[in-house]
Amino acid sequence: MNVVLLYFILPESLSPEYARNRTSAPVWRKFFQHGHARMFGTIVATYFFTITGFAIMTTLFALFTEKHFGFDARKTGYLFDLSGSLASSCRAG
What's this model's pTM, rounded to 2 decimal places? Predict the structure, then answer.
């Protein structure tokens, strides 16, 4: 109900010139029409494979520690906590 009321009360914020020149193409499609679209695709693909690889690695590491060392979820979590703490405490430079 409030949305309908606001539609009739609030003035249009876009100028008529902008509304006429506006295309129906989605914003994401306009983004890929620029010159750096190839680099953006490479960055997105790299990010995807990095995150996927890290997720697979952590899952397989938990299975590895369970099979070879008999660790349960808590002990594996402590191991991840230790490695994360050590990584964050080591600063470059």
Answer: 0.50
